[in-house]
Amino acid sequence: MAKLSQEDLLAQFEEMTLIELSEFVKAFEEKFDVTAAAAVAAAPAGPAAAAEAVEEQDEFDVILTGAGEKKIQVIKVVRELTSLGLKEAKDLVDGAPKPVLEKVAKDAAEKAAESLKAAGASVEVK
Question: Are strands 98-104 and 60-66 parallel, antiparallel or unpaired?
């Protein structure tokens, strides 16, 4: 097998859904007996620490609060966003309020919220 460059690997990861990427990370951790935890830096003390703690949020959750009248359209959009099966997407929509996407970038969260709202759902981004 030819060695893949970093750009090739990143291109492959871009095409994956969040669920597929999560499964890959778990498999990677198991295979190489490592954890993909972020490094934790020592927290500075004093008033500067409080200012840094109020950083802009960079991970958002898209929460479906209601399906609205066009439930089938909402289920279709949920399937597109999450790559869930029909039954899982229907269960998610029926069980609202439930998170559709978790810990995604702001632009991805806004795009998902717009898609769901266009389908007739009520959505909250946290």
Answer: antiparallel
